[in-house]
Amino acid sequence: MNLIECVPNFSEGRDKEVINKITDVIRRAKGVKLLDVDPGEATNRTVVTFVGEPQAVVETAFQVVCRAAELIDMRRHHGAHPRMGATDVCPLVPVAGVTLDECADLARGLAQRIAREAGIPCYCYEAAALRPERRNLAVCRQGEYEGLAARMDTEDDAPDYGARPWDQQLARTGCTAVGARDFLIATNFNLNTTSTRRANAIAFDVREKGRPVREGNPITGKPKLDADGNVIMRPGTLKGTKAIGWYIDEYKIAQVSMNITDINATPLHVAFDEVSRCARERGIRVTGTEIVGLIPKRCLIDAGKYYLEKQHRSTGIPEADIINIAVHSLGLDDLKPFDPREKVIEYMIDDATSGSRLVDLTVSEFAAETSRESPAPGGGTIAAYMGALGAALGTMVANLSSHKPGWDDRWQEFSDWADRGQAMMTELLHLVDEDTAAFNRIMAAFGMPKGSDEEKARRSEAIQAATLYAAQVPLRTMEAAMGVFDICRAMAEQGNPNSVSDAGVGALAARAAVLGAGMNVKINAGSLKDRDTARGLIDRANSLIAEANAAEAAITALVETMLNS
């Protein structure tokens, strides 16, 4: 599925009725899902996030910009955040199956349509910029709303689309910046101070732009200029960041408000630690972090693993546990509860786009579903689940070993094994549902029309393609489950001796996975008309079965020896 995200920022954060009328446009739209609505009282601004197929997102973005223009009067707007229009910014973000360049093309088309059909002039920024300097949003928004009238008629400052003399409609709607960008993290670092000046000083310490170099007094001195008359800047310590300091009356604290525009150059945890360091140097403490809008999952995973490694703890633990470490390490629940299901973009997309999955069932529900008279889920699904359980047991032993008293200097060794085990378990859990999906593809092919010769040919071709896929999926299960023997063998030989039996059971589960999936390879391959392909699949399955039998026998013998010693 091709997915893009749209994150429009509207210049209204206080009137819930207006916010609801704007976001109702998204709720009613077909092909998109509203993920997040994040209003700010002090900023008088609402950040909205929705996701869907590219064309559906672009159409909805146009409609919601038009609705905001009807409801928001910029002549009455005041707030702490820079702004220039009822819809201040409207970026498109690639999520899956879409490139940033493709998003940029979509953004330019959207900007042109907003200007042409809605009469709202638009600037294009970041990857969609038509001028190099306008990649920087601050350049597009220079002078904010109050400076727009003077910019509309100037060649250098006029909008990219829809420039015209200032009139009453423009006075009401302002202008909009439409762009394309990678994921941007909008975050505020909470300080144990009420001083905006000190918060600003910390922001200038870290933001990429830095602060002006001054003559004499570093605070009150006159800014130094270069040969061209430009202010000389001393860069900050964090690449790909923009930051300012402000006071939030709602929380009665000052914050360093930061946009991380390059999460590869500056991960969230790096920004947190650096802001904390600079705050300490000024006698201030960072008490926590506030995320505005949504955040990519990998940012929290990277943060959780970073702090686990600093503690010499295994990183091969469940994803939810890693994220929990990140939440507490970054103080994401400092001001209000932080629910990853409501703030992590991938979780929101999963909830919005996925149907019922077997892996989301409870253990008893899974068993009950398998026991019903329907043919799926069947043996291939159970084989994949057995493999996942084998991987889970090997990973458990690795994690227990990494925390064994007296083995502190071996934590990295076992953490690496646990990471491998988690990856195996994740892949095999995916194959649990994939195997059932493969069976459903066969049933769908058999249900195709078979009246005319052409229909019969299409049906036969679809059945063969679906059958081939139904043989390939359990073969993937076999290959994935073979990796489980490596971790179970290593844990039986080198892991916590008190858990050697668990490593043995993991090997038995892996063998069941390989042999069970192998049966499904053979039964599906037997229905293929292409006998060479069928023979290749069956030969590969038999080879893996032989390897699995030998691996399990060796691990079981090792475990029995240790248990009887």
What does this protein look like?
The chain is an alpha+beta fold and 565 residues long. The protein has 3 domains: 3-180, Formiminotransferase-cyclodeaminase, Chain B, domain 1 (2-Layer Sandwich), CATH 3.30.990.10; 185-341, Alpha-Beta Plaits; 355-564, Four Helix Bundle (Hemerythrin (Met), subunit A) (Up-down Bundle), CATH 1.20.120.680. 53% of the residues lie in helices and 14% in strands. It is built from 18 helices and 13 strands. It has helices spanning 16-28, 54-71, 100-118, 137-140, 148-151, 168-173, 196-206, 268-281, 297-310, 319-330, 340-343, 345-353, 363-371, 379-402, 411-446, 453-494, 500-525, 531-564, and strands at residues 3-6, 9-10, 32-40, 45-52, 87-96, 122-126, 176-180, 185-191, 211-212, 233-234, 241-248, 253-260, 286-292. Strands 1, 2, 3, 4, 5, 6 and 7 form a 7-stranded mixed β-sheet that branches. Strand 3 (32-40) and strand 4 form a beta hairpin. Helix 1 (16-28) runs antiparallel to helix 2. The chain is globular, with a radius of gyration of 29 Å. The model has no long low-confidence stretch (mean pLDDT 94).
Write the layout of secondary structure elements.
Elements: E1 3-6, E2 9-10, H1 16-28, E3 32-40, E4 45-52, H2 54-71, E5 87-96, H3 100-118, E6 122-126, H4 137-140, H5 148-151, H6 168-173, E7 176-180, E8 185-191, H7 196-206, E9 211-212, E10 233-234, E11 241-248, E12 253-260, H8 268-281, E13 286-292, H9 297-310, H10 319-330, H11 340-343, H12 345-353, H13 363-371, H14 379-402, H15 411-446, H16 453-494, H17 500-525, H18 531-564
Parallel strand pairs: 5-7, 6-7
Antiparallel strand pairs: 1-4, 1-5, 2-4, 2-5, 3-4, 8-12, 8-13, 9-10, 11-12
Helix pairs in contact: 1-2, 2-3, 7-8, 9-10, 14-15, 14-16, 14-17, 15-16, 16-17, 16-18, 17-18
